[in-house]
Amino acid sequence: MSYWEHRKPVQRFRAVDIVEVARASVRLLDEGGLRALTLRSVAQQVGVAPASLYSRVESVDDLFDLALDTALADDPVMSESIRNADLPALMQAFFAHLMTHRWAGQVIGMRAPRGPAYLALSERMCVLLEQAGTPDPLGSAYRLSNLVIGASLTAPMAPDEKRIAIDPERAPTYARLHATHHISPHEILADGIAALLS
Q1: How many CB atoms lie within 10 A of CB 54?
Q2: Domain encompassing residue 177
Q3: Pfam families in the record, alphabetically (predicted)?
Q4: In terms of domains, do 190 and 94 share one?
Q5: Do the beta carbons of residue 94 and residue 148 sit within 8 Å?
Q6: pLDDT tens profile 152-189
Q7: Under a CB-based contact definition with an 8 Å cutoff, are residues 56 and 16 in contact?
Q8: Which residue, 84, 104, 105, 160, has most beta carbons within 10 Å?
Q9: Secondary structure of 65-116 as H, E, C letters
Q10: Which of 70, 92, 120 is the last residue of a domain?
Q11: CB environment 159-182: b (16+ within 10 A), e (fewer)
Q12: DSSP conformational letter for 167
């Protein structure tokens, strides 16, 4: 169940600040990846006992939901892109966002994003696709999102992809093409977006 389906109300005067919890979760994920995010580590960051967090969240899954949406909402380039960018520029901005918050693509793979910032992104994608006359705007939005998420997850290995040779006896065509190919995650993504939108 998503945090957005069961938000807990504030139960006491001196309550745990959910925005502070969300931003602490983003910091921990940015610094240490998925394993760094625990109820204990967030409680330590915000200066409360771990048990106090249960007044606002049910589990670490809620922290992932909050961090994912807060990182997107706090990204000024994404906010501007959601309001004003065309679809290719919006997808490039989303790629840059996911490259900044390397854990976000992994979290999206585990938890469907349903927070307000991700809903605004999804809505904008669907509106732009519908305005363009796309026969299946939602399906196209899923394809574009999957392309961007996949590109962001694999982009860090691009230097190794070029550096590590391919055995020409095992994969002769791949080895020949690999030897002369210029690998650019940004260009590959741009070509993929263009192909999906054509």
Answers
A1: 15
A2: 76-197
A3: TetR_N
A4: yes
A5: yes
A6: 999 998 888 888 889 999 999 999 999 988 878 999 99
A7: yes
A8: 104
A9: HHHHHHHHHCCHHHHHHHHHCCHHHHHHHHHHHHHHCCCHHHHHHHCCCCCH
A10: 70
A11: eeeeeeebeeeeeeeeeeebeeee
A12: -
Is the domain of 103 the same as that of 52?
no
Same domain, 94 and 57: no
- Residue 154: which of 92, 105, 115 has the closest Cα? 105
What distance in Å separates the CA atoms of residue 104 and residue 68, rounded to the nearest whole number? 6
Please check whether residue 117 is in contact with residue 73, taking contact to mean a CB–CB distance below 8 angstroms.
yes
The amino acid sitting at 149 is: I
For tokens 């001196």, name the residue: 14
Residue written as token pair 């004003």: 84
C-alpha to C-alpha distance for 81 and 197, rounded to whole angstroms: 18
Q: Which residues lie closer than 8 Å to 87 by C-beta, 6 or more apart?
A: 125, 128, 129, 132, 144, 193, 197
pLDDT tens across 31-41, in order?
Answer: 999 999 999 99
CATH number at residue 46: 1.10.10.60
d(CA 17, CA 59): 16
CATH number, position 154: 1.10.357.10
